[in-house]
From TrEMBL:
Keywords: Nucleus, Repeat, WD repeat. Its main location: nucleus. This is LANO_0E06304g1_1. Transmembrane segments: none annotated. InterPro entries: Beta-prop_IFT140_1st (IPR056154), Ebi-like (IPR045183), LisH (IPR006594), WD40/YVTN_repeat-like_dom_sf (IPR015943), WD40_repeat_dom_sf (IPR036322), WD40_rpt (IPR001680). PROSITE patterns: LISH, WD_REPEATS_2, WD_REPEATS_REGION. It comes from Lachancea nothofagi CBS 11611.
Amino acid sequence: MSVTSEEVNYLIWRYLQESGKEVTALALQEESRVLEFDHRFGEHIPIGALVSFVQKGILYTESELLVRYDRDIAPVDVEHSARDFNLVQALEIDSDRVPQIRGKHRFELADESSVSSNHNGVSEELVNGTRVSESLSGDSSKFIKTLHETLKLPQSSVSRWNPTNGLVLAYGGTSAAATIVNFSQQNPGSLTIDQEFKCQHPSTSTFEGSSCITCLEWSPNGRSLATGIESGEVRLWTIDGKLQNVFQFHKSCITTIKWNQDSIHFLTCDTDDVATVWNSLTGTALQQFSPKETGMLESLGVDAEWVGPDKFVIPGAQGSIMLCEMGESRPLGKLNGHTKTLTAFDYQPDTKMLVTASDDKTLRVWRSGNLNSSNCFVGNSQSVTSAMWLDEDRIISTSIDGTMRVWSQSINSLLGLSMVDEVPIFCGSLSPDKQKFAVGKMDGEISLYHTEKILEVIRNTPQAHLPASIPVDGDYQPNTEGNCITDLAWDSSSTYLSISYSASETAVVYVG
């Protein structure tokens, strides 16, 4: 006999609706999966189910007073039988049977009490208010591999590997220029530069400080490179650095470029939160959205995502998400749930689910055809900086609070957590084969995780001891201090990682 938290949530939600507390019911609906239960079981559950179950529980507790453990009739309890038996009395009886759990070593120093162990050989560590379990077996596989750069390139703010040619890398920095580099590889981990092509935006004094490449993305077929600069201009280049087209509509810094899978259309967003859909062949702007309200200074978001061949999502006002369609002048709908700037989107095409992250410290999962989020993950103490699907169920995320976390949308819970040194994490990047996950920290250090080991640790951790403590597999440290990571990018074979820094050269690291 068992009952899940989701089933309890559903009964409470039904009770709130039946008693007319619609606002409270709506809040619970957004924080849980009650709509899914209602669709499956709603017609089979009668009105007043929660009250009925509570009354039966009270009756069962009262009946326990009449029968002893050996099935003999117990003496009449005059105190309880003289009163009308109610919920409070039932709870008092249970509390008398179960001794109160008193705090042990309540006044220990924080660093002494942060780690404890239980009789199952599992240590428990408190991280940001979350108790994390870790095996005490002394596993030798916790050795952290030191990663070294294969080569270095000039300083850049962003870099991207060609998705179809693993030996082609584009990076962009100052001087309004992006560079396409062709490598040759004699042996694994050994790269040499064969050719370089410079993709130059025109220098202009119209916009102060408008010479930096802020965004670049390869088309899915690897034939075209879109680059955006601080002035708002977007240009399209061939793989050998020839100019294909110029796109001029934005008036502020380009923050996002997202290609459609057809390699023809792409979406751009700027710091004024203007989103534009382009036809790369004709150079024309097909549609434009500007959801920002007049006078609003706060950024709505720094990401966008295609959620189908002709649909996409962009940040909206007050943490909302606008669902748009190519050819439609107005958004199809609005997804409400987040309350602050949106930081990351990732779409899972097989399940048609979207995960979003925000400065409100939460992640949310949205299902196709539903305007309410099916999951809301809380626990981070600072902004969430990245969120990606590991598979059809699990999500991996990073946060400014210095944690990497793994979540499950099916059971709506935190599965694993890693915090190495509490340094803020600025970005996270999942390799194309989804076998490696790299996080970039404020101090310039890279931590590498193998997803198969992450899932193995979670599988081997009893559910009662989740979230599991996730071990770090690799580490890379730059030679310079005071150097923040601005971007991470994997090559198509998931063996090389390029790292862009705020004040030093771009590093290319061989992961293997």
